[in-house]
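Task: sequence design from structure.
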């Protein structure tokens, strides 16, 4: 028997697909640890993961409570504080794609009291978990150093830092996508069906939490094809995928019935598509240099990855060089291609933030590029450059009015409001100027006040927010009130203007006006 045949026979006896075998093949049996030399036994690895988790939490969470919540976060605040029955009624009509996330946040707010910090803490923790998973995946595909470098690159991405303080599902969805990719790699590298079961569960959770994460999963069949997966592996992958699809079909059906919710998305422009790398991973507005830098970072990372894949020492994974390259490039690029393609052929769904789940792939690719420099001095210099790019964006995202004027308005209300005052929330032409969000984001500032123009409270309706009533239709609410504090946007709608006119007609005069970011806080007194 030839040496090659003997080698194949040994692999078959151990349950390994010979097509996956190569120089640095990991031991893929269920009961033997993967082989990667002393690195696998390095006792410093748990400490490295702990450091990554702490750094990611500290950098991502610093000043996370400072920016005032904005429109989308306001919807999270209201949805998560509904009763279960009220939340269910709402999801039948709107925002079903975020239902699982709202449910998780509902449970979270039952454990902790709401505050801007508690609103964003889950995203901070999810960012930290994603960084750790990236390090583990980097070690599994390459080596511990590449994993650590990739995790640091991830934490230094401006988009990652931005969504780390966003009370929405983006950070959690990204962490779950990374977990799914890691479990896929393990399932392909080992014989136990447990890994495929874990992959199926992770896929269901990922799509339920953030529907557009499903775009990443479209790249996984390409991985199996590129590694020459066995029939058994294809069968297990198909079974896992089928379970995930069946579990997510009700959500998809409900989401399709609510697709009118994305009617606000406009056609992508050529200029917008040209800026795609900046908008997805380095979202700094109005600076052409950042667009060029984002393209350069992407080009260098992909080029180094493809060049490195030609070396025998490129990977120790059972996927082999081709499989690893297809995994990372498919994860990075295919979701964007699909999202733009669907938009060009059907409904407009292209929004750069929907592609944030591709950030771990770019981090791993850049980790390979940085690792290729060999010398730690050069690696440190490149990391320092990436951090320097992120610092201005990190700082600008953590000021009081970086998201909305709610924080500044609440502070101004606190300084002028007296017990028993009426509060008037003036409507706006621009939905982002949702002044009553100030009350929900900072409820303590509005204790012992009367909401003069509240219509149907949010928890009693099937819509995302509350409704207003014209102040002129409920003048009795002003009985016994001598002062009214009004939060006024720069673009009052018709009803908002009429409400201010009603105050004047009923004998109130404008006493003071103070700026609060883009809004104004006015005090009206009875003559």
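Answer:
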């Amino acid at each position: 028997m030839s040496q090659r045949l003997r080698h194949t026979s040994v692999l078959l006896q151990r349950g390994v697909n010979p097509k996956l075998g190569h120089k640095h093949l990991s031991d893929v049996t269920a009961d033997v640890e993967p082989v990667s030399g002393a690195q696998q036994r390095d006792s410093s690895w748990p400490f490295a993961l702990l450091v990554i988790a702490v750094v990611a939490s500290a950098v991502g969470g610093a000043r996370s409570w400072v920016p005032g919540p904005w429109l989308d976060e306001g919807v999270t605040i209201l949805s998560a504080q509904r009763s279960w029955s009220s939340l269910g009624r709402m999801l039948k009509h709107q925002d079903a794609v975020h239902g699982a996330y709202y449910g998780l946040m509902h449970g979270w707010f039952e454990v902790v009291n709401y505050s801007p910090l508690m609103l964003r803490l889950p995203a901070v923790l999810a960012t930290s978990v994603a960084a750790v998973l990236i390090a583990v995946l980097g070690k599994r595909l390459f080596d511990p150093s590449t994993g650590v470098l990739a995790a640091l690159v991830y934490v230094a991405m401006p988009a990652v830092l931005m969504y780390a303080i966003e009370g929405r599902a983006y950070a959690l969805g990204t962490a779950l996508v990374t977990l799914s990719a890691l479990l896929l790699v393990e399932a392909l590298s080992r014989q136990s069906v447990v890994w495929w079961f874990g992959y199926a569960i992770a896929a269901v959770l990922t799509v339920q939490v953030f529907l557009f994460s499903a775009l990443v999963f479209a790249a996984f069949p390409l991985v199996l094809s590129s590694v020459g997966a066995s029939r058994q592996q294809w069968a297990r992958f198909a079974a896992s995928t089928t379970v995930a699809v069946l579990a997510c079909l009700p959500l998809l059906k409900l989401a399709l019935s609510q697709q009118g919710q994305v009617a606000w998305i406009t056609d992508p422009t050529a200029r917008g598509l040209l800026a795609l790398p900046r908008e997805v991973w380095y979202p700094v507005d109005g600076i052409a240099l950042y667009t060029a830098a984002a393209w350069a970072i992407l080009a260098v990372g992909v080029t180094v990855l493809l060049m490195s894949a030609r070396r025998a020492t490129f990977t120790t994974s059972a996927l082999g060089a081709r499989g690893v390259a297809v995994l990372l490039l498919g994860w990075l690029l295919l979701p964007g291609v699909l999202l733009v393609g669907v938009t060009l052929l059907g409904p407009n769904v292209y929004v750069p933030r929907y592609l944030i789940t591709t950030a771990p792939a770019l981090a791993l690719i850049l980790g390979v590029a940085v690792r290729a420099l060999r010398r730690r001095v050069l690696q440190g210099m490149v990391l320092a450059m990436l951090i320097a790019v992120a610092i201005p964006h990190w700082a600008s995202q953590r000021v009081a009015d970086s998201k909305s004027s709610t924080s500044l308005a609440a502070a101004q209300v606190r300084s002028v409001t007296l017990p028993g005052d009426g509060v008037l929330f003036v409507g706006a032409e621009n939905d982002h100027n949702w002044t009553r969000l100030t009350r929900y984001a900072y409820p303590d500032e509005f204790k012992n006040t009367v909401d003069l123009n509240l219509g149907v409270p949010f928890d009693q309706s099937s819509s995302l927010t509350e409704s207003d009533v014209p102040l002129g239709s409920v003048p009795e609410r002003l009985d016994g009130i001598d002062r009214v504090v009004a939060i006024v946007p720069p673009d009052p709608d018709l009803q908002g203007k009429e409400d201010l006119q009603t105050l004047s007609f009923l004998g109130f005069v404008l006493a003071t006006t103070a700026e609060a970011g883009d809004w104004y806080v006015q005090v009206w007194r009875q003559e």
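Strands lie at 422-425, 450-451, 483-488, 508-516, 519-526.
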